[in-house]
Amino acid sequence: PIGFKKTISPDILGQIPFLNLMVFYLQKIESAGEIKLTTKGNLPRKLCHELYDTGIIKERYIENGIAKLSKEADSVVIQTVKIIGFISGLTKKRNNKLTLTTVGKKLVKEEARRELFEMIFKINFQKYNMGFHDGYPENVGVQNTFGYTLYLLLRYGTKQRKFAFYFEKNLQAFPFMPERFMDDWGKPERRYKLCYKIRIFKRFLNYYGFLDYNGDDISGVSDAPIDIKTTKVFRAIFEIRKDKFMFSKTKHQA
What we know:
globular; three-stranded antiparallel sheet; 11% strand; mainly alpha; single chain
């Protein structure tokens, strides 16, 4: 019922930040032939700086001087690019050297941009562990509810709305989710709210350039209100397929 539009223009694909950063990463590996990793298996400092210095995706802690980029572990985005490169089969490590796979060599080509985008996007929310970089419980199923969030954004996202609007509808649809935060500190519902905010909105969708924000905080670590609206890029990529949509309204509709 929800999927990619039949036609997505190259111009739209060229406006997806995470896709552009992944392409840059793959091209650097392709150009070098192979990249020697550190003794701990991390990306070399030079490549980390090259990736971040593109300015494609900036990170608040680095920009504010709270953290200094000196290694792979200092950047959530760079680690995410590397991990998704591995689990999607675009890159491989052998003898502590990073190279492109046959699939990576194929999809780094310009004519394969859509195929590359669809692959990394699906891997990002289906197989990549979004809890890798935050302090919330990892296996609580937040990303498993993403399909419903996508539906909500398609239905309501053309108008600027509070993050709370989406959270409340998500909670109505999945009322059991706070129970998975019972064994942690703080109120379960608030913990779930902040986890949902940081994993889905602040990082995942934000990295792809799918949302416009208006507010003081999108960090995901506070209750500061933010307004959210989908971008033209989001609306040019996804659609609700009405002919396959079986949902019917009830008094319990979320």
